[in-house]
Design a protein that fits this description.
It holds the Pfam family MR_MLE_C. This protein is α/β, with parallel strands linked by helices and 405 residues long. It has 13 helices and 18 strands. It is globular.
């Protein structure tokens, strides 16, 4: 089954998405997500100029060989741009294989390990009261796990909250440049434990709670925060420190029993290897889109399972519904799946471009049992929402020093 054509679409039905469509000689097509937030067009160029010409005429069934060809054959391996591009190709090929087999992709992996996918949503707010109100709403909607993020008092643009109720890409004006936010570790450390104290006092311990530090602390600061949060029994703390120096997680692990999650910026198994085999983390957050596709993510899951580490794929709104559906299949299969980040149901604009169906029931996400990923892409609708250049924010300390966003 030869590859006849590869199309790359960039659209912005609220957010920028890069979608790849591979078409075989018999007309069967598959979809993949290549979105790299803030660097979308770099991936588009990689796909159109360097990948697509090499794959026309190749056998679409040879998923593993094509993945190795694109990874090893490029010599310049790793990197967010190249792995996002490879991921989209890999995902589209799995979609094709599922359609040709007339099976959902999870069946090709070995079948289901569970009846539905446990998800956690986001309860954000500019005050503790607003966060708790949103948490109560999500509990009533059936969520069993929720991430809490709250703006710091007297601080502009805290991660996870929306300044003026707007997302960062809405704050960039007519000539978009990275918006700047500010950070104070002291204010943060003094404030966040109170958020979880009040959440537990109001809602008890039946609801699983987690929190994203977004790599803004040093290992010893993160250790202190995790100790402060131990009484509130979090599901996990995400990205407590940067991952470039893996041993930072060793420091945190030695000081606290709060579970740790990281890996949304990992591109390969090798990025996670040291943390997993030393059991410095409890959850790997690597996404199909940013981790090179389903082919390597399955290997990552198998490796993590040897060390009691669970999978908790990244699910931010800049990952398209194609990635969400790929995660659904992966999560249904993975024996060591933990929890899936889920930002809720899409806007009318998003759902006009991407046709798919998921349903939340009692904390679990379900999908229709369709061949392949079970999602389609409307090329004509996508034309109504052209690409808009945007960036992730830049973060600075109060004295102006550039910091981790």
């Amino acid at each position: 089954m030869k590859i006849k054509d590869i199309k790359v679409f960039v659209c912005c039905p609220g957010r920028n998405f890069v979608t790849v469509k591979i078409i075989t000689e018999d007309g069967t097509y598959g979809l993949g997500d290549a979105t790299l937030n803030g660097r979308e067009m770099a991936v588009v160029a990689y796909l159109e100029e360097h990948i697509a010409p090499c794959l026309i005429g190749k056998d679409a069934h040879q998923i593993e060989d094509i993945w190795q060809y694109l990874y090893k054959g490029a010599y310049w391996q790793n990197g967010a741009v190249s792995t996002a591009a490879i991921a989209a190709i890999d995902m589209a090929l799995w979609d094709i294989k599922g359609k040709l087999a007339n099976m959902p992709v999870y069946q090709l992996l070995g079948g289901k390990s569970r009846k539905g996918v446990t998800v956690y949503g986001h309860a954000n707010g500019e005050t503790i009261e607003e966060v708790l109100k949103n948490l109560g709403t999500m509990i009533n909607e059936g969520y069993k796990a929720v991430r809490l993020q709250c703006a710091l008092p007297d601080t502009k643009g805290t991660y996870g909250t929306m300044e003026g109720k707007k997302n960062y890409y809405e704050l960039q004006g007519n000539r978009p440049l990275p918006p700047e936010q500010e950070w104070s570790t002291t204010k943060y450390m003094n404030f966040i434990p109170e958020l979880f104290k009040q959440a537990r006092e109001k809602f008890g311990y039946a609801i699983a709670l987690c929190h994203d530090v977004h790599s803004r602390l040093t290992p010893i600061e993160a250790s202190r925060l995790c100790k402060l949060l131990e009484p509130y029994k979090l599901l996990f703390i995400e990205d407590a420190v940067t991952t470039e120096n893996a041993e930072g997680y060793k420091v945190i692990r030695e000081h606290t029993d709060t579970p740790l999650a990281t890996g949304e910026k990992f591109n390969t198994l090798w990025d996670a290897k040291e943390m997993i085999q030393n059991q410095w983390i409890d959850y790997v957050r690597t996404a199909v889109t940013h981790g090179g596709g389903l082919t390597p993510l399955k290997k990552l899951a198998d490796f993590a399972s040897l060390y009691h580490v669970r999978m908790a794929p990244h699910g931010a709104p800049d990952l398209s519904p194609v990635c969400l559906m790929a995660h659904m299949h992966f999560n249904l299969w993975a024996p060591n799946f933990g929890v899936q980040e889920f930002v809720g149901f899409g806007t009318p604009e998003l759902n006009e471009v991407f046709q798919y169906k998921v349903e939340l029931k009692d904390g679990l996400l379900y999908m229709d049992d369709k061949p392949g990923w079970g999602i389609d892409f409307d090329e004509e609708a996508a034309k109504k929402y052209p690409y808009k250049r945007s960036y992730l924010p830049v973060n600075r300390l109060e004295d102006g020093t550039l910091w981790n966003w």
